[in-house]
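Hi,

I'm pasting everything inline rather than attaching a file, because the server keeps stripping attachments. The sequence lines come first, and each chain or strand is labelled.
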Amino acid sequence: MIDSFRPLPRNLVDVILPPSGYDDAMAAGDTTDALRDACGSASRKFPRSWEINPSEWDEVARENDRNRTWGINYLDRFTNQSPTHECTAHSLARNAEAARNRHRAVIYKDGPKESQKRYDTSGPAGSVWLSPLSVYPEANPGQWGGANVRQVLEIACRRGMLPDTTQPRDYGFRHAIHGTSGKGNANQSGGRWLPLSQFPAGWQETAKLFKPLEVIFPESYEEAVCCVLRGLLVSVGRNGHAVPWAQWMAGERAMAYPDSYDVVRYDSERTARSAWRGSFAIVTMTSPDDWNNPAS
Amino acid sequence: MKAFLAAAAFYFVAFGLPDLPAWVSLPSVVSPVSQADAVAYVYEKDDGPIPGGVMVAMARLNSERQIMATFYEEDAGGVVPEQYKLPLEAAKKIGLPALVVSASGVVLKVVPKPGTEAAVMEAVP
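And the predicted assembly:
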């Protein structure tokens, strides 16, 4: 799965799904400037020192394959939003989880586990599964119709995200809600629609433990690829759906992403070149005082 | 001389060491080099990305040696978490990036600019 030079299954490339929560009007509002404004003090410029000459991309991809240091290697599970419109919130949460696990220095060698399986190491490593549903209802109280990337990002940067009630071990979180009002899976709890007014009392105390602190906004396709080559996830919206790119597939110049339907899919280079505008990559999340006790 | 030393040894074993005057101070006992239980790679992202080899080494410390090996980005903003206050201070003294090796909250070693897997692994006792 991690071999970025392998041929890609055609049925998983440039898949266009039924509306999942990101229509053209929303995409038009998600400009780089709008996202940067939404993040406020968490906004960061793409570091010039991260640039990689395109002639060296293959070599860096091989190194990432060998080391298992792609963004997808910092993810240990899938999510499943079906049939909701929560896609931008799922993409955000995956981006946040990967950034957190990256700073925790834990590599999941095969990337996300199939929906019914788990890594034994997720719990001891303090992997925290975040709830997209802790963000989406504030962005769209109406439940159906989706949300802008800039909306969910602004919410996360302002007040953070809640953990899912399903975790790889019992961390003792004082506040948690289910992960999605959709299907979910063994590693993501699903449940009924939950308006913000029905969040557990005092939820803000726990949400503030999971805030993006530094967010980069690629200003070209090349910068987006460099972010992925550096092990970050790049969240994009395209074709009516929002996803986090997590691996650059060197063999076909495509982008792999853990789709919020329990599966890895791919954007061709052509799609990726049309989709990088309005993208973001979380570099840093709030770190706990004690990684063994993320609820503290 | 041998007879004297033997008699002194017998005396100290039988009756213990004599009290020393207050002005005599003995050097404190120094424990052997402590076993590292935490390693922090403190960096500033604008100065460069985390090298792949460093990432691999830190993950190995976590999985193979159960040492809490983590990264801390210097200008992340927000409150500096308790666990990074001392490593951050120690790292800044020699310049970033730096690898700060600790045991029980005491900094054992600070290594400037480790760039490879081997450099990190060798730095951790």
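Chain A has a mean pLDDT of 96.

If the labels don't parse on your end, tell me and I'll reformat.
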